[in-house]
Specification:
Length: 381
Amino acid sequence: MTAVFARGLWTAALMGGLALICIGRSAGHGDDFIQDYLGARLLLAGESPYQDMATTRERFGLPPTLLPLPRNPHPPVAVLLALPMAGLPFDQAFLAYEVVQIAVLSWTWGAACRTFGRDGWGAATAGGLLGVWTPVWQGLDWGQPVGFVALTALLLWRAARKPVGPVPAGVGLAAACCFRPFYVALAATAVRWPPRAILVAAVAAAATAFALFAVVGLSVADWLRTGAEVGRIYVGQCGSVPGVFGWTGLTGMWGYAVVVVGVGVARWRGTSVDACAAAAMVFGLISYPLAWFHYDVQLVPVLVWFVATAHGKQATVPLLLAAVYVAARSVPNMQTHVVEQQWLQLGARALLAVGVLLLCGGRERMGIEPTGSVVHTPRQF
């Protein structure tokens, strides 16, 4: 345990130092964190955390938003996670938030290595090098919860590998989706559960979601309307299929729905949970309308699993594709050349998706469960 802690500390120190160098003169100034920080302050004051953003910024002495944004589009858990920092002045709160994200991302990297491969000083150093990866350092600069995003992906994946029971599974998935909605694709990995277990998990998820929205005094309908408005404005800045083609509203969600169904079909036919979880997250980013550049941190556990699996199978081509993906996503996201950036991000994500398909192609390599095999029923049911 001492060695694990020491390696985690080294990963965090290296990651934080490299990220600080890369950020240099800040461009984002924590602009995304401001939304959740102000929402948390309003919630502590007994007010609605989803008020007009321009008025709220002026009220608390913060500069106007860099982008037109009527209200905070983030769902409830994003605001609740900012509560511990809400009592601090913004500069101190933002610094604390960045430190927490680095610590959490470092732990997630080590935990992913222990889950899918081997943890050691070499792996810890590789994790520290994530500090120069654009989704990490620019995500930190803008105040995005990059550590929480990666950790949530890993926890959901581990829960899918070893089912925890329908109620905890439903609660956990709902909490994750009330943090960032793109995790919903991972629900498709439970398609082989008994129908009653799926029903119980769905009820638990619905109850959890409505409870979390009630805590912050926000209706699901209001949040969906805000999300649709934000989508119309910002889809064209995201490196996904809806982003490059400008598909907004329900049109933009059809591709994501196809991914969810595809993952469910693959899992139903016996494809391994690991392969389905990896595909859900990679193809999810390709098809999700608001797949911002920093959301690639969701793929940190995928990369660990991918490299460990490809190395074990001596699969050279998938490893090369993963390397190209990491390199391409290291190009900084700028406010100019938006179209070129979209295609670069989409192309990089597509290469990793191809790598997942190549790595998992064929019944033996894909981990197809034999016909008649036992379907693992979630525990505690």
